[in-house]
Amino acid sequence: MSQVRSVPILLHKEIRYALGTYNQAKRAAVVLATAVEPICHSVASGVSDQPMTEDETIIGAINRAKHVLEAVPEADIGLGLEGGLTYDSKHTNQWYLFSVCAAWDGQQLSVGRGVYFPIPHAIGEKLKQGETELRHIIDELGSTIGSNHKEGAYGLFTDGRITRTDVFRDAVIAALTPFHSNFYK
Ligand SMILES: O=P(O)(O)OP(=O)(O)OP(=O)(O)OC[C@H]1O[C@@H](n2cnc3c(O)ncnc32)[C@H](O)[C@@H]1O
C-alpha cells in the first residue's frame, strides 16, 4: 500500500499567512491547506468583480497576495485567492470555473490553480454580458444566500462531492509547495 505524504505541516506552524479576504470558503481552504489560521484582511483585486479570462483571474490573485502582504507586514506570506471563468475555444467550446491562489513573500511569487470545472453554457454566456456575478446565479439556483462563502458552484453542480473550499485548498497547497519543499530549492 502506498504511503500518503502531506505538505510539511510543521513548517507551516512557524509561518504567518495573510489572506486578502474575509471570505469563509477561502479562509477554510487556507486552514485545510496549512493547518494554521490566516490573518484575514480585505484588499482590492484590481480586476473586475467577475473575471472572465484566465489572465484576469490570475492577475486578481497576484494583486491580492501583494496588497495583503503590504497591509499586514507582520505576515511572512501573502495569499490572494480569486475565482474566475475561462472559455475553452480550442478543444471543448466550454466555459470553465477555476480558482487560483497566488503566494508572495516579497521576493518569490508562486501561483496554484485548482480544478477547471465545466460550467453550463447559458451561465457562462450570461456572465459574459457583464450584468451579474456567478454568486448571484448560484444563490438563485441553489435557493441560498452567500453561496460564494459556502460550497459554491462546485457544491451545487456535484451535489456536494466537491466544494469551493476543496478546490481552493488544492490551489493553496500548489502555490505554497515551492516555498516549503526542498525539491524546489
Ligand atoms: O469575498 P471575495 O474574496 O471577494 O470573494 P468572492 O467570492 O466575492 O469573489 P471572487 O473574486 O473569488 O470570485 C469572482 C466572482 O465569481 C463568484 N464565484 C466564484 N466562484 C464561485 C463559486 O464556486 N460559487 C459561487 N460564486 C462563485 C464570486 O462570488 C464573485 O462573484
UniProtKB/TrEMBL annotation:
Listed GO biological process terms: nucleotide metabolic process; thiamine metabolic process
EC main group: hydrolase
Cofactor: Mg(2+); Mn(2+)
EC number(s) from the headed UniProt entry: 3.6.1.73
Annotated Non-canonical purine NTP phosphatase/PRRC1 domain residues: 20-179
Reaction catalysed by this enzyme: XTP + H2O = XDP + phosphate + H(+); ITP + H2O = IDP + phosphate + H(+)
UniProt keyword terms in alphabetical order: Hydrolase, Magnesium, Manganese, Metal-binding, Nucleotide metabolism, Nucleotide-binding
Keyword match Zinc: no
Family annotation (InterPro entries): ITPase-like_fam, NTPase/PRRC1, YjjX_NTPase
GO MF term (any one): metal ion binding
Highest taxon of source: Bacteria
Record's protein name: inosine/xanthosine triphosphatase
Species name: Paenibacillus pectinilyticus
